Amino acid sequence: MFRFAYPEYLYLLILIPVLVIIFRVSLIITRKRMKRFGNPEILSQLMPDISYNRPVVKYMIYIFAFTLLIFAVARPQNGTKLQQVKRKGIEIMIALDVSNSMIAEDIQPNRLEKAKQAISKLVERLVNDRVGLIVFAGQAYTQIPITNDYASAKMFLSTVSPGIVPVQGTAIGAAIKLAMNSFTQQEDMNRAVIIITDGENHEDDPVAMARQAAEKGINVYTIGVGLPKGSPIPIPSSSGQKSFLKDQDGKVVISKLNERMLEEIAAEGNGKYIRANNIRLGLNSLFDDINKIEKKEIEARIYSEYEEMFQYPIAFALFLLFIEFLILDRKNRRLKHIRLFKAEK
Question: Is the pLDDT of residue 170 over 70?
Fold first, then answer.
């Protein structure tokens, strides 16, 4: 099994396109300044040793080397030894609403990002429990199967967006049903489902589905993300101008938190409803309730030994930097007349 010991360092990869853009802008500025001195073709004859391509090649080598060093800092590892272990915990399936209403901004930065923050912090507090993630809108899909690999779960969580589910809507009942079918087959295991949504259900009967879950011994908790007064739903625009979703009559759609629905789901599911807002996520109360659930012995096969692989990207990065050192900024007078790929007339 391949993993990164410190996957959070991979966020540094965001710097790569920024550095490329900065270099591109500086290159454009430099060429504009050169044009002030005269015709570029004449200037190239006056400065025959100047190379315009080599600085670009050298910078791209720097970029590749920097990328490899980021991977090295994240400590890539390869599992080499599987071990059967027994722990006490429960199984938790998290169902996250990714419908368009979840990008409403009554909760900052928006409902979906706030929900992802809540899930990330919840996963950080888990110890021996198994966790999985379901995303739903008009339909429900398993994003992360039940696992005890918390680092991978957090990495997959960062990729969740409204576009991940092709059918819009809000099918909370379908999410609960899929969650019930996504647990392992291990008997005598206590389980919980956590629904994170604004509660605007349009597709099915989630209360009845929560009742079925409770009958199977599965507790259903709900976290309401949003405010009861509601908020318009932003529509992404390439022009940068903010616009909002409108109904058939041309009126702006206001998405409101449906607390009554979420309270009914939690009550029928033998769980608890918690409202998340801009100040708190309600995780402490939720975590305390989950910890009250009796933990059962979980059998799992885990990698107990990992082989460090950070030395490979470091070695390749050093090799690239050595190549960059050999490439001169100016043309080599002895080699500049060699044209390996020049066709003969």
Answer: yes
How many other CB atoms sit within 10 Å of the CB of residue 3?
17
pLDDT-derived band of residue 52, with 50, 70 and 90 as boundaries?
low
What's the pLDDT at 89?
86
pLDDT at 341 over 50: no
Of 6-15, 160-169, 279-288, highest mean pLDDT: 6-15
Q: What is the pLDDT of residue 243?
A: 84
Dist. CA 124–CA 63, nearest whole Å = 32
Comparing CA positions, the residue from 135, 123, 188 lying closest to residue 162 is: 135
Kindly tell me if the per-residue pLDDT of 46 is higher than 60. no
Which CATH number is correct for 87-301, 3.40.50.1000, 2.60.120.200, 3.40.50.1110, 3.40.50.410?
A: 3.40.50.410
pLDDT at residue 84, rounded to an integer: 62
Start-end of CATH 3.40.50.410 domains in the chain: 87-301
Residue with tokens 């044209």: 339
